[in-house]
Design a protein that fits this description.
Bound molecules: adenosine-5'-diphosphate
Shape: globular
Low-confidence stretches: none
Mean pLDDT: 93
Structural class: alpha/beta
Strand order of the largest sheet: 2-3-1-4-5
Largest sheet: 5 strands, parallel
Number of strands: 5
Number of helices: 9
Strand content: 5-15%
Length: 190
């Protein structure tokens, strides 16, 4: 089978992390989550972590050059050569362009870009609920508002970017984890 190179994106709270993990397990390729990698860097207090921390706590995007560096390093590792599920990257047009350049260098192609759509009111409800369960430092009301605005302004334009490349599949993110997973499977087989 050819390599599976997929990316999942959507607004905060859409469930992209959960779905990316499932899909990665199912396809036997690594899940590459920039959010998880950045949180690990913050916890380990590395240079990347120190540059990312305040932005993350405020709900802002971390500067492109930081995130691009982390992602490039990860995608160049051996286990990513047969494919990957990118989760939370790219989030800006500059990041999407950097990904294109990296894929060219690796002589690889993106197979599909899946976007999970959920209405904004439901997203806020989900995130506030998660705040009680997980204690993530950016799941408070102010940071959630900033994350939504960052998504609208900087990440949503990527819909057109990938639509123009004819790899975009829009999936309805309402319903159970199972139902959404089923829709994603259909979208990647189509
Ligand atoms: P969510 O999308 O639910 O907010 P993530 O775990 O994907 O959660 O991201 C958490 C935070 O990590 C973001 O708010 C941002 O500060 C940072 N981050 C993750 N990925 C990126 C990225 N590609 N570009 C810039 N910042 C990022």
């Amino acid at each position: 089978m050819s390599a599976r190179r997929l990316l999942i994106f959507g607004p905060p709270g859409a469930g992209k992390g959960t779905q990316a993990r499932r899909l990665a397990d199912r396809l036997g390729v690594p899940q590459v989550s920039t959010g998880d990698m950045l949180r690990a860097s913050v916890a380990a207090d590395t240079e990347v972590g120190r540059r990312a921390r305040a932005h993350m706590d405020a709900g802002e995007l971390v500067p492109d050059e930081v995130v691009i560096g982390v992602t490039e390093e990860r995608l160049e590792q051996r286990d990513a050569q047969q494919g990957f599920i990118l989760d939370g990257f790219p989030r800006t047009v500059a990041q999407a362009e950097a990904l294109d350049a990296l894929l060219r260098k690796l002589n690889a192609r993106l197979e599909r870009c899946i976007t999970i759509s959920v209405g904004e009111d439901e997203l806020v409800q989900r995130l506030l609920k998660r705040a009680h369960l997980e204690r993530r430092s950016d799941d408070n009301e102010q940071a959630i508002r900033v994350r939504m605005a960052e998504y609208r302004e900087k990440t949503a334009p990527l819909l057109d970017y990938y639509r123009a490349r004819e790899v975009l599949a829009e999936v309805d993110g309402r319903g159970s984890v199972e139902e959404v997973a089923q829709r994603i499977e259909e979208a990647i087989c189509a």
